[in-house]
Amino acid sequence: MFLLSGILIIIVGFAIGLNPLLVVTVSAFVTGLIGHLDPVAIVSGLGKAFVDSRSIAIAWLVLPVVGLIESRVLRERAQRMIAQVHAATTGRVLLIYLIVRQVTAAFGLTTLGGHAQMVRPLIAPMAEAAAETHFGKLPDKVRYKIRAHAAGTDNIGVFFGEDIFIAIGSILLIRNVMHQQGVEVEPIDLALWAIPTAIMAFLIHGTRLLLLDRRLKREIALDAETAPVEEAGQ
Question: Shortest CA distance to 124 belongs to which of 100, 153, 156, 164?
Fold first, then answer.
């Protein structure tokens, strides 16, 4: 039972807001030491897992992409393009991205999107430009909310879409865990069972995005009403 103390460390660490990497590392060390592993073996295992995940290579590949996008002024061009489409709203822009992200992830193309290479330089600015076209200048808290919804849309699209692809890591992990427990299941069966969940995720979050424009309008109107009062108080 003491081996489960690592899980307790993760729960407490996340609850009090410590650095996630530090919490996971400490949890791994404590679990390894309780399991009578050599400290050198623990460090070696962490290093092997880090290298196998290709985290270093991915970071160096993303940086040039972001730099190229910023240098070519694609951010501003995307904003101008969306501003010219009067029918485009923040909710509709994000809904279209949700569809694209979820469908491409279902075919295993999970790297086509992402926060660094897609949301920050393109999707979030386009969503903000759509809001500015309809509501004018945006307060900072509204702008941050739009960015948060853009990032959340990317997360939901890829998370619930990728499990439909039979060769994704999560499907293989589920299959291996169930195989170790004596339950035989094929990847195609897991992928098929992921389809209803993906559909429900799309319907729920898609509805939230369609209602987002109303919430933004109310918040902007409320901010406009409270601004003169605050200025008078100062």
Answer: 153
Per mean pLDDT, which range of 2-6, 56-60, 185-189 is the poorest? 56-60
Question: Which regions of 65-221 does DSSP assign to beta strands (E)?
Answer: none
For residues 91 and 139, membership in a common domain is answered with yes
Closest-CA residue to 227 (of 148, 140, 134): 140
Q: How far apart are CA 124 and CA 171, in angstroms?
A: 30
Q: What is the C-alpha separation between 81 and 44, in angstroms, rounded?
A: 50
Query: Do 101 and 158 have their domain in common?
Result: yes
Amino acid, single-letter form, for residue 48: K
Q: Which of 54-58, 92-96, 140-144, 225-229 has the lowest mean pLDDT?
A: 54-58
Do the domain assignments include residue 229?
A: no
Cα–Cα separations (whole angstroms), residue 120 to 78, 178, 221: 12, 38, 26
CB 93 within 8 A of CB 45: no
- Mean pLDDT score of the chain: 82
Could you tell me if residue 32 is inside a domain? yes
Q: What are 33-82's pLDDT values in tens digits?
A: 887 888 888 888 777 766 665 544 555 556 666 666 666 566 677 777 77
Domain that holds residue 125: 74-224
In this prediction, residue 74 carries a pLDDT of: 64
Question: Do residues 6 and 31 make contact, with C-beta atoms less than 8 angstroms apart?
Answer: yes
> pLDDT value at position 202?
95
Q: Per-residue DSSP letters for 109-120? A: -GGG--IIIIII
Contact 174, 202 (CB under 8 A): no
